Amino acid sequence: MKGVEVTTASGPRVLVLGIGNLLWADEGFGVRAVEHMHRHYAFPANVRLIDGGTQGIYLVQEIREADILVVFDAVDYALPPGTLKRVEGSEVPKFLGAKKISLHQTGFQEVLAMAEMMGDSPAHQLLIGVQPVELEDFGGSLRPEVKAQVEPAIALALEYLAGFGITANPRPAPLPAEQGIGSLEMMLERYETERPDEAAAFRGGDARVLGAGGWTGPADFEVEMQALVARPLVTHPLVAHPPVAHPPVAHPMAGAPGTDA
Length: 261
Hints:
The protein is an alpha/beta fold and 261 residues long. The chain is 30% helix and 15% strand. The protein contains 9 helices and 8 strands. The protein has helices spanning 29-40, 60-64, 91-98, 103-117, 144-147, 150-162, 188-193, 207-210, 221-230; strands at residues 2-3, 14-19, 41-42, 47-53, 68-74, 84-88, 124-130, 169-170. The protein has a 6-stranded mixed β-sheet with strand order 1-4-2-5-7-6, sandwiched between helices. It has a two-stranded antiparallel ribbon with strand order 3-8. The protein starts with a strand and ends in a 31-residue tail after the last helix. The model is unreliable at 1-8 (pLDDT under 50).
């Protein structure tokens, strides 16, 4: 995770967070949105923009320190692909956990719950999510329908923050990639232009495994996990070992002049 360092300032503490996995196509929407926002807008010092990636529980301290939380993510709303939707307040954790498209969503839902249990949950929360078009494309980028929602998503976030008196100033020119909040290797322009072709980098997994036909994924992942959890715990009795007899060891001073031995 690479964030923007800021100094403490008056006013509410704001965290704008992009979460998701850049390696799986539309799963990277949240990260791409916060990257774009940072490169095109300047904020007051009480606003932090962070590429949260798939950090999960490691974000808990960042969450606890925020009064206002804005999250960008790819979310399964069961809506047409490419649809943008905002969710606010207590509904945010429900949408992050109801229809999971990635393990990071479960992890982030737990982060919010942990912050709440510790008494430091952000008072104001906004989730801006997009319905993904494609996820099963390892090394792929955002699909056009999803990429087109990056700027509208940012507009929703700016409108929300303006309601708290927080104004972002458009930069005269976008920041260069090396001044962004993501790694240079994963910046959008380079990520898209330097991707190997399909012959060199199989899109759906390792052909040596998948092509052999010896492995298939579960028909229903959730059902299989529930069955595994429901299995009785198998315990193994401890094996008792007979005590080992050790010969007595004479003290090094035994029998020395001037001793009682």
